[in-house]
Amino acid sequence: MNFINPTKGLLDLDKMFDDIIEFIKDDKDSSYKLMIGTDSQPGRVICFVSAVIIYREGKGARYYYRKFQHKKIPSLRQRIFMEANYSIELANLLSAKFEKMGKTDFNIEIHLDVGENGKTKDIIKEVVGMVTGCGFDAQVKPDSYGASKVADKYTKSM
Predict the structure, then answer these.
(1) Which residues lie closer than 8 Å to 39 by C-beta, 6 or more apart?
(2) Which residue has the higher pLDDT, 11 or 107?
(3) Neighbour tally for 117: CB within 10 Å
(4) Each residue of 84-138: pLDDT tens digit?
(5) Distance (Å, whole) CA 10 – CA 4
(6) By three-state DSSP, how is residue 56 classified?
(7) Rounded to whole angstroms, how far apart are CA atoms 137 and 42?
(8) Contact between residue 113 and residue 83 where contact means Cβ atoms under 8 Å apart
(9) CA of 13: how far to CAs of 17, 83, 97, 133, in Å?
(10) Residue 131 and residue 58: Cα distance in Å, rounded?
(11) Residue 41 and residue 123: Cα distance in Å, rounded?
(12) Shortest CA distance to 80 belongs to which of 122, 142, 137?
């Protein structure tokens, strides 16, 4: 699984994690949030982009993303649940890496591309329940910028 960082280029999962740890070690006194969001763009095939953002609260962030394709998915509902699932899978991988380091209190947010306005308002409870049931905090629009801004930016160029 490879990710792209706009500054550092292509990184595998381990190198991305090491870079996140380095970013945190650079300013140990700050508070951090790790945000993961996935967005998709339908077409002949569906372009998915998962973004990982390490946010140093009040002092900037660093992000990474990965793009991948999937065959056409029949409904918006299925696509939204797939986006959430891809984010949860990634959160589980990173959470396990933090646990190996003895860091069990690291808060990971899943940013969902759903909101009160638009076609996704009817599935907010279900998809948020799926995320929180997996032990992660869920954010929806307008607070889910990991999915609706960062990941969305890269779904447009395939």
Answers:
(1) 48, 49, 51, 83, 113, 147, 148, 151, 152, 155
(2) 11
(3) 8
(4) 999 999 999 999 999 998 887 778 999 999 989 888 899 999 999 999 999 999 9
(5) 5
(6) strand
(7) 27
(8) yes
(9) 6, 19, 10, 25
(10) 26
(11) 18
(12) 122
What is d(CA 55, CA 63) in angstroms, rounded to the nearest whole number?
8
The predicted model scores a pTM of: 0.92
Question: Which among 49, 42, 70 is positioned nearest to 3, based on CA atoms?
Answer: 49
**How large is the average pLDDT for residues 36-42?**
92
φ/ψ of 151, rounded to 5, equals -65, -45
Beta bridge partners, 63, equal: 53
For residue 59 the two structure tokens come to 């002092």
Query: Which tokens go with 91?
Result: 């959160």
Cα four-point dihedral sign 69, 157, 66, 118: negative
Kindly give the pairing relationship between strand 46-56 and strand 108-111.
Answer: unpaired
CA–chain centroid gap for 6, Å, is 16
Q: What is the Cα–Cα distance from 68 to 82, expressed in whole angstroms? A: 13
